[in-house]
Amino acid sequence: MSFKIRRNDNLLEKRLLVSYNISMPMDMKEQIARTTLELLKNGNLKKITVKDIVEACNITRQSFYYHFDGVPQLFDWIIRKRSDRLLSYSFSDDMEQGLRVFFISAVNALPYIRKGMQTNYRDEFERILSQAAYDLFDRMIEKNGYYSDYPLKDVAVIRRYHVQAVIGILREWSEKDTEDIDHIVHCVHLLLSGRMSV
To answer: How far apart are CA 52 and CA 44, in angstroms?
Structure first.
């Protein structure tokens, strides 16, 4: 399931989504990452090994280990790099629009995430994805001053609640949700900003 950009989506979203697909010279880390994502997407592997990756990249094991300590660190790097790119494009002006970019990116990444969750690296994937969602939420509350009147202990619980809710929405994402993405984003935005209660 790949989310298509509508004609009236703004330039920010287009730049973000195109940045994942354009052909440009890449460093070895990026080459290893893209090859691993292709292996993950196209293969029926329960465990992606360094051997699989170096064979697909046509590099030596030493070259792989020069850049990464192992497959879990590679997954961590991939998700963090994508999250950093997303955060640099999101939330610059309009909070709801930033959330929409986040959801579009997450929906486009779902095939990789679902395949990754089927491998022996499930625990690492869950930890890394949760951390990326927490980073996103922290950025949102910092940028918009949400929950500034609450004690830090309360904000920690609110943060946990919202992050797990968003992960839950994405975990059960369907084609119908893709059609209703604007409504879902709007509701999530209202919930995060405290303008809608559950």
So the answer is: 12
